[in-house]
Each structure stands twice: as C-alpha cells, then as structure tokens.
Amino acid sequence: MVRQGRPGCFRAETYPWNLIRVMPAEGVAYGLPTPLLHKNLPFTGPERRESVNQLTTSSGGAGFSRAGLAAALARMRAATPLVHNITNYVAMNFQANVLLAAGASPAMIHAREEAAEFAAIASALTINIGTLEPAWLDAMLWSAEAARDAGRPWVLDPVAVGATQYRRQAGGVLLARRPRAIRANASEIIALAGIGQRGGEGGGRGVDATDSIAAAEDAARDLARRSGAVVAVTGAEDFVTDGARAVLIDGGDPIMPKVTAMGCSLSGLCGAFLATSDDPFEGITAACALYAVAGARAGRAAAGPGSFQMSFLDQLHLISPEELAEEAVLMSA
User: Fold this and answer.
1) 126 closest CA partner among 290, 277, 281, 270
2) Which residue has the higher pLDDT, 311 or 196?
3) Which of the chain's ends, N or C, has fewer CB atoms near its CB within 10 Å?
4) Would you call 71 helix, strand, or coil by DSSP?
C-alpha cells in the first residue's frame, strides 16, 4: 500500500528493507544491478567503431578531445568538490575512498532530517537506490529537489530499478526530479527507459545484467533525450550519451566485478566531475575514462580482488591529467 507523505513523494510501509543483491522469481526478467565490468576485449561491431583523438557528434558538430579529459581531471582536483552521496550500505566505505583517491571530498549523509539541507550546500549529489527503504527514499526525493533548486547537479544510480514495483516507482519519481546524469548497467538503463512505456523492462540474472551494452544504446539515447540527463551505460565497455553525442570507453580489467561497489563508486565519481564541468557530457566521459584507465593499471599489478582494490585506489590517486589523456581508449559511437 502506497501512502502520500510530503507532497509529490510516496512511502510504502509494507515493503521490507531491500538488499543490494536481488533475485527475482524464476522466469522473471528484470534489470538487476551489476558491478562495473571492464574487459580488455575487442568491441562488438568493430566495423562501426573507430578509435580517434577527436570525437565528433553524428551531426558533425564539435567533439570532445583527449585534451578535454586532461582539463576535466585537472579542474576536478583543483576544486576538490564536496560530493554528497546517498548510497547503499555495501558501497559507502569504498565509494568514499574512491572519491578521496581521485581528488574529491565525500560526504555520506542519508537522514531525511538533514539530507536535503546538506544537498543544497554540497557541490554535487549522488543518489543510489541499492538498499532502498521509505525513510531513505524521502531523503532522496527531498535532496534531489534541494539540489535542483540550488543549481547543484545530481546523479541517479537506479540499482535494480526493474526488479520490484517499489523500485520502479522510486525510479520514476526520482527521474521526474531531473538528474543531470544517470549511471547504470545495460539492463537497468533499459528498465528505467521503459518505465511508463511498454516492453522496456530489460533482463537480469542475480546481480548480473543480461542485456549487452549495444542492446541498451538506443534506450540510453532515448532516455537522455527525454530526461535531459547524460546517460552512462557501464559494462564491458562504457557508452556515454547526451542524446546527440555519444562515445564508447574501453579499459578496466575482468577482475572488477569481483570487487563490490565498483559501479556504485563510479556514480560518486561522476558527481565529482559534474560539479566542475560546464558540459555534463564531457564531465561524465572524463569520469568513466579515469575509472577505466585506473582499472586497467590496477589489473596489471593485482594478484586478486584484495590487492586489486588497493591498487585501484592508488591508481586513481596517481594518474595525472596528461596520463589520462594519453591512456584513455575512446571510441566514436
């Protein structure tokens, strides 16, 4: 049963606390969460993906240069943006460490009594619905409104948005608060794009997305156009679009899904870059590129998931703007 709280918000008192790992009934296909998965494998459809130094829009407009990656990272580190994260229990510690290592300042505040007030003074807000429950949802909705009213960018991470009615409702009302960016796996993007539309539920198995990045590209472009947000679909490669421009980013390492909160923490990093970027598309592209380069470097040094996590944080800290521009693998899309 859904009852109204603050105008425009809802609370579902009968729902139990949701876990970060969600398993639907057998035969039910919904968009479920997956950690960020980067593999050093060729892209699908290589005949239409060309690695270039200057990326251009499909209409031939101004593109995003590699120099833009360096400038975005330098600006973020110089500003040390304060990023307010309403995220899940599993991700809090690692997400805070990722932001600190990259050069930002994290705050993990979720109490509805103060979250909206803090969102108005932070540089950016990120909202992750992984361990969703009514009081947190109130804090998310009010914080998104406060950030928007204060002119602060916010990022939506719609974990498992297609898995339950409660999550679909939460995803819909948060989307209506106009996030500046959305980061999710392919199945979650397809599910979020399909809220209120037929046939847009996506797939999932446990914590794994069953939809490919390529399968989510059209949904991502459509979602970006309708919502006004930059959409980042992360997986074996990352696809970033604002509805007009699009880029693919390769990198990372296959061990990344064995380290919890990798994808959630990327959403926090997207908030840090948004806070210091005039162009949200450039900011989200830079965030994903930094993550991919750090993952690739960490994978070469790590013996397993534990050492990978430590090495990944080190690489986020060590990568210079010039190295990011040189090592990032950007593909036209």
Assistant:
1) 270
2) 311
3) N
4) helix
Residue with tokens 């539309």: 197
Q: Are 11 and 138 in contact (CB under 8 A)?
A: yes
Cα 265 from Cα 282, distance rounded (Å): 19
What pLDDT, on a 0 to 100 scale, did the predictor assign at position 209? Answer: 58
pLDDT value of residue 48 = 35
Helix axes 280-301, 66-79, angle to 10 degrees: 90
| CA 107/CA 83 separation, integer angstroms | 6
Residue 39 to residue 137: CA distance in whole angstroms = 34
Given this model, what pLDDT does residue 210 score? 63
pLDDT above 70 (res 8): no
pLDDT in tens, 176-210: 999 999 999 999 999 999 984 644 444 443 334 56
Task: Quote the distance between the C-alpha of residue 8 and its chain's center.
Answer: 25
What's the CA gap between 218 and 283, in Å, rounded?
21
Q: Which residues pair with 241 in a beta bridge?
A: 231, 246
Share of the chain above pLDDT 70, in %: 76
CB proximity list for 178: less than 8 A, separation 6 or greater: 148, 227, 228, 229
Using one digit for the tens of pLDDT, what is the confidence trace for 24-43?
A: 322 333 333 333 333 333 33
Q: Helix, strand, or coil here: 118?
A: helix
Strand partners, 329: 250
φ, ψ (nearest 5 deg) of residue 198 = -75, 145
- Where residue 10 falls among pLDDT bands split at 50, 70, 90? very low
> Rounded CA gap, 267 and 289, in Å?
13
Spell out the residues 6+ positions from residue 46 whose beta carbon is closer than 8 angstroms to its own: none
The DSSP symbol for 261 reads T
- What does the block give as tokens for 68? 């833009």
